[in-house]
Amino acid sequence: MRVLFVDAYAACKGPIAEALFRRYADPKHKVFSVGLAGIVKEGDNVPALVCRVMEQIDINMEPYYSRPFKPELLKGLDLAVSLLGPTELWKPEDLARKRLLANGAEEKQYRLTSYELPGDKSLPVAHVTAVRDRLNHYVRQLTSFCGLERNA
Q1: What is the pTM of this model?
Q2: CA-wise closest residue to 69 among 91, 45, 100
Q3: Mean pLDDT throughout 71-100?
Q4: Is the CATH number 3.40.50.720 carried by domain 2-145?
Q5: The 3-state secondary structure of 59-88, one letter per residue
Q6: Given CB 3.0 to 4.6 Å as the disulfide criterion, which of 20, 47, 89, 145 pairs with 139?
Q7: Alpha-carbon distance 11 to 28, whole Å?
């Protein structure tokens, strides 16, 4: 299965979710994260604060970097997970449509759970830790719900 985590900037929540997915999911499943805002440069490093917070749970964020959304990423995609406001599961074809719509005005589909994850600019350690912990819970739930966990 190919899974995509969609964030606004691909600097905090997306890379955290991607790293957690790699921890909990069977390695045969492919995962990556992107930002929809169109302001990230491909290859930007994950912020140092995020790296420190992830080190607390023994995850090295060095291999993770920002990626902007590109339509070709949808090829072969099985599941897109929105981290923009309420967390949702999208069909891949919905992602291209959502890129063009303001504030997700259309009907939501494939809701698994609704974690309100706050933004990630200029945040204190406690805030990033809280985001990490909520994503940790969510990604574990996602891998279990979809039958993607290691040794499943």
Answers
A1: 0.76
A2: 100
A3: 66
A4: no
A5: CCCCCCECCECCHHHHCCCCEEEECCCCCE
A6: 20
A7: 25
Residues, the chain:
152
pLDDT, tens digit, for every residue of 48-69?
889 999 999 999 999 888 888 8
Q: Is residue 106 helix, strand or coil?
A: coil
Give CA–CA dist 109/38, Å, rounded.
Answer: 24
Residues whose CB falls within 8 Å of the CB of residue 47, separated by 6 or more in sequence, listed in order: 11, 12
pLDDT at 121: 52
Q: What is the pLDDT of residues 89-142, one digit of tens each?
A: 555 555 544 443 333 333 333 333 334 455 545 568 888 898 899 899 989 988
Cα(93)–Cα(117) distance, rounded to whole angstroms? 24
**Would you list the domain boundaries of the chain?**
2-145
Q: What is the side-by-side order of every strand in the sheet holding 2-7?
A: 30-35, 2-7, 79-82, 88-90
